[in-house]
Amino acid sequence: MQEIVDLILNNGDEAICRRGAIFERVPFIELMCAMKPDLEAINAMPSPRALKTHLPIQLVPDSFWKHNCKVIYVARNARDTVTSFYHFEHMALIHPEPGTFEEYLERFMIGDVGWGSWYDHVKGFWEQKSQRNILYLFYEDLKRNLLEEVRKVARFLNKDFSEDVLKKIAHLSSFDQMKGNPMANNSTFPKDILNQSEGNFMRKGTVGDWKTLFTDSQNERFEENYRKHMSGCSLKFPPAK
To answer: Could you tell me which of 2, 7, 224 has the C-alpha nearest to residue 105?
Structure first.
């Protein structure tokens, strides 16, 4: 989504969007004190600027809402999220060791992971999307029909492009294209924060990879936990294709 937004804000210009690594073009709010660009540089960025955060809605600064900032939220189904996050945790040196998948899955279900409970996170933005300036998207839809999701984002950002430009943006922001682009794949991310010596940040990018980790008993336990936490919520994830 960071790459999509940067491409849209720059009218699909591939050269401009290779001006720096994605974490420099779209700064990560939670890490602005630990890496460049710092707060001073971010404040000097011209409007409109794009920022990234994993903060749950209750921790999003009030100024976001007071200034009617546009928020694009990407939700991913819980099983693939915990699977991806588990692999990521082995690289993230600023996070605790994940332990076994069994141990990590239990922690995930009670929200004892980075940025807290997945359940509270996805429900928090979902329940506020009609009251706030929020475009709520699903990772599964990005994988199913990237062009259509790019079209939604462009419309949300008040950009009117030809079909050719939209297709170009969708192509450049596809997983395979980004994985081979050092300005988009986080391969230059500071090594003291993200150790990629034994694996890449961009790993598979597929839907349904949870099946490679979950046992039948873990899946049953997780389904019970999921039903309990999501009971009464209208949020439904697209079916895996």
So the answer is: 224
